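re: that chain from earlier
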Amino acid sequence: MLRCEVILCRDMAQRGQKMLQAMAAAAKPAGVKVTVTQTWTGRVPVVMSYGLGHPVRRQWTRTHVRRGGRLIGWDLGYWLRDEPLNFHMRVTIDDDHPHRFIRPMPAGRFEAAEIELREDFDLSGPIVLCGLGKKQRDVKGYRGQQWELEALQRIRRAHPGKRIVYHPKRAEPALPDCTISLERIEDAIRGASLVVCSHSNVAVDACIAGVPVECEDGAAFALYRDNPAPSREQRLEFLRSLAWWQWTPQEAVQAWQFLKERLSA
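^ sequence. v structure.
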């Protein structure tokens, strides 16, 4: 029987707590033995947590993986994350993102979301550079706008003369010779020729919107690695697979069965 330590902390976001509570409650029907803790003990082969960027919990989970343990990590979903009751939470195994595990999967989960692929790409449109948030910068070891400035240099070398729009994660100074955009990311990337990000969910938004992407990490790296402009069919196959890496609290038993199969693969 799979044994899992669920780290459930009071400072977690409410939706994170609800997801972990649902997974703990569904453990027995799913054939999993769960221990719920507030601090990592390291006594159980698998640890489950929410918000892998949290400085304290990140230290626990990374140490657990380095010692040969397995990790199940949850965060807000790739889409339908704002649904008040049936909200979706994304999941990963052993790493911040599940791109190493993305494989072709049945289409049903994505089709149930009723998301229509668009073709918002415009070759004459700007390049949208998406900034990092504070937590992301801390995790990656960047100071201030270091990553954004380095990415800006790379963009200018590869696309001289192209207009660049900077979309920061939060209000902060504009980058040199860039238009700054504080509108919703869905609006900011509409009509863009390229989206550049580190590992943001923006890459998934751009995949749905049909805008090419350059990224370094994240779930969408499975699609965009060395392939910034995949075909519509490739995008659809990726999204169908990605839909299996997000679940609702009501689907906790099914989520356990899915994760157990991946952990034993």
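The longest strand covers residues 70-76.
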